[in-house]
Design goal:
With 135 residues, this protein is of the alpha+beta class. The chain has helices at 43-50, 85-88, 94-97, 100-104, 117-122, and strands at 18-20, 37-41, 54-55, 64-70, 75-79, 127-133. The protein has one domain (36-133). Helices cover 20% and strands 21% of the residues. The protein starts with 17 loop residues before the first strand and ends with a strand.
Amino acid sequence: MKKRLYTRSDKNLIEYDSWRTFDRQQIIATGKDHGVCRLMIPPALLRRAFGRGDKSQIGFAGTAQYDFEDTNLDLYRMQDYKQTTFYHGMNREPEFYMKQDNIRKPEHKRIREWPSVDEFWKLETPIEFRLLASE
């Protein structure tokens, strides 16, 4: 009965415990710090489960952040990075995004409308959150 060794390729989160922490925080210099992974989570679900996020320390690039700790006492931070009009500025008129030049591009390269901060935290569709962990 050997103990199971977890590898980097193992993505199983069964019996993985973590909780939101307020007394310890990770030191992140800028929003450009290397993210460990990206999680697709609906922002509304995240807010329902963990409440309002803390004020973001990366300035205009993010609107909220959540600090977590796991059973190994490792810290990691989830943050929305460049996902709202708070970073990108106000959206243009809808016709701008429907121009043929924009529609011809592959979907990941198209210029798109960004949600406002309030709209973003009410979204029920999964959005990418960056996970930053201490090394």
